[in-house]
Amino acid sequence: MTEIAGTPVQELRGVGPRLAEKLADCGVFRVEDLLFHLPLRYQDRTRVTPIAAAREGVDAVIEGEVRAADIVFGRRRSLVARLQDGTGTITLRFFHFSAAQKKSLKSGSRLRCFGQPRRGSSGLEIYHPEYRQVEEGEVHTEESLTPIYPTTAGIGQNQWRSLCAQALARLRNAPPRDLLPAGSHPYNLAQALQYLHTPPPDAALEMLREGRHPAQLRLALEELIAHNLSLFRLRQRAQAEGAPALPSRPKELGAFLDALPFVPTHAQARVLAEIATDLARSYPMLRLVQGDVGSGKTLVAAGAALQAIANGYQVALMAPTEILAEQHWSSFSDWFQPLAISMEWLSGRTKGKKRDAALQRIASGEASLVIGTHALFQRDVNFSRLGLVIVDEQHRFGVHQRLALTEKTAARQGRPHQLVMTATPIPRTLSMVAYADLDCSVIDELPPGRQAVTTALVDNLRRQQVVERVAAACEDGRQAYWVCTLIEESDVLQAQAAEATAAELQQALPQLAIGLIHGRLRPAEKEAVMQRFKAGELSLLVATTVIEVGVDVANASLMIIENPERLGLAQLHQLRGRVGRGSEASHCVLLYQAPLSANGRQRLGAMRESTDGFYIAEKDLELRGPGEVLGTRQTGLMEFRIAELPTHNHLLDEVQSLSQQIREHYPELSEPLIARWTGAVQHFAKV
Ligand code: ADP
Ligand code: MG
């Protein structure tokens, strides 16, 4: 498609600077982009419907003679024309009309109209039909279904149709190069595009609507392959830059592990060994560690950090929330301070002189381990010898953020190694398109002695019983969480809801020591509450979803989640992972608000059925789509032009094998594929 690919839309008839600007708003810069600007839906204008056969609510082309046309003064002034063919009469009604329009709709003229009949005061009526005058006996109707394009203010459907028709003509003149290995799909690219812009009258509309037509599958397949290849290219580029080789340090690691009150599980030991090998290489490790909540990922991160630090390099550990970063701070303080490793803290709340001092110690290399939040991405944060970046709970950071942190080293020794940890197990299919740039390790074993959490669904009408159950558990010496959820993204409202619930529970259970934690508290306040809960001084902790990640109190064995139907499965799984950390049998109560939607019922059902994070993630993907599972709707990571997950999940195996085939046997196809599918986006990003 070189010719079309390189041609700006301005070269098409009718495209001036103003239209070009509007097209750019829709991501259309090149003629090729128009071809990929596919219709949202189609109308059938290929047949003329006799007026007698017109049906309420069904789009139709009708043709007839105007019998009468008058301005009618009803509740609203309108221009009304009666149109007649041999079979019947229908009313055309215009609430907005021009003098010229009124003149053209005169008795005796022949019109062909398109619109949707509705029931009106005079029988069937079409409001504001599209229409044009025709000659008696003129047979021409549309030969293909009429596409309706996604659009923006100021570009009409006729304009889109004319532009796409011009693009299609160029496509036929210079058929694009097929970039998938021959025989991989019944449609080639040109056929698929032509079909989707101009489907024949007998096209399977249902299939098209659902995105399952072979022509759509052809494009989705190619797009997913291009995406997969672009991730591999990222990986290759990163690896080409090299990294400091950090050989394993068995002595230091052994001393560290010996000091722990437990031995690593087999899974932890295996993943530690994989990482140790990666770090010793002179190109960057790009590794994703997946492990269900509570599987002990922190220990694995510590082993990796130790290896880098023992080799004289710095390590950055980044977490998505302040609470989680604090949790890491406290674990690593316990483990690393006895080893005389210097640690530094950096979050968005580190301000003024404190921040300057921290930045200074990071830049000088004095700080060996830096723990923090997004604040580590900021421009003025510079490391002296950054050897390893650890990102916890990856799904909240996009690929580009992840890469930004690896550019933060002054050392002329290539990139730092990267370790990414996620507790949201990522279905294999999804990780192939979202994380193809990473190697994957799985911690598929929980530390010994853990008991599965049992989960119950309880209607909020039975709230009183749940409150009594909390009381009983706490009086028994156990501890409980009560999690308040709110749809609103507002911290303030969430905090208020949690405060109200805490007050309600305190009134119902005056004998209990109840704590409250939410995102509006100052870090010191949060820390104090968490400390009291950990120490067992508080038996019930009312919280917002801030406790979702990382919080670790083994004696807490009961969790109530209010309005769980508002949350995604991954988030519920995370929350539930806060209990079941001790040897006590644990329970989770999903206190839902009836009535549940069908989807809500399925999601909560999956929670009750299983505690397996992988199963739950698969369900989540099926029920909500990848943006939700990865938490990356905003990052643009998973935005495709044509492909849709989970609709196209069944293509993913093929995506993987074709991508591999291209990398091994047709590497020359890789760049053009990436350019074709991500070119407009990149251009867009630059504008
Ligand atoms: P996650 O994978 O969810 O981040 P953590 O690293 O927070 O899990 O570990 C959960 C809890 O399990 C922590 O209290 C940790 O100290 C403990 N833990 C980790 N590894 C082991 C082990 N091998 N044996 C016993 N307990 C362990
Ligand atoms: Mg963790």
Keywords:
alpha/beta, OB fold (Dihydrolipoamide Acetyltransferase, E2P), 4 domains, seven-stranded mixed beta sheet, 24 helices, 40% helix, 18% strand, disordered C terminus, binds adenosine-5'-diphosphate, binds magnesium ion
What does this structure look like?
- With 687 residues, this protein is α/β, with parallel strands linked by helices.
- The chain folds into 4 domains: 9-43 and 146-209, no CATH class; 51-133, Nucleic acid-binding proteins (OB fold (Dihydrolipoamide Acetyltransferase, E2P)); 210-450 and 658-687, Rossmann fold (3-Layer(aba) Sandwich), CATH 3.40.50.300; 453-610, P-loop containing nucleotide triphosphate hydrolases (Rossmann fold).
- It is 40% helix and 18% strand.
- The chain contains 24 helices and 22 strands.
- The strands form 4 sheets. Strands 6-7-4-3-2-5-8 form a 7-stranded mixed β-sheet, with no helix packed on it. It has a 7-stranded parallel β-sheet with strand order 12-13-11-14-15-10-16, sandwiched between helices. Strands 17-22-21-18-20-19 form a 6-stranded parallel β-sheet, sandwiched between helices.
- β19, α18 and β20 (540-543) form a beta-alpha-beta unit.
- α5 packs antiparallel against α6, α6 crosses α8 (214-240) and α10 (266-279) runs parallel beside α11.
- Mean pLDDT is 86; it is low at 631-637 and 681-687.
- The protein binds adenosine-5'-diphosphate (ADP) and magnesium ion.
- Adenosine-5'-diphosphate is lined by residues 262, 264-265, 268, 291, 293-299, 423, 447, 552, 581.
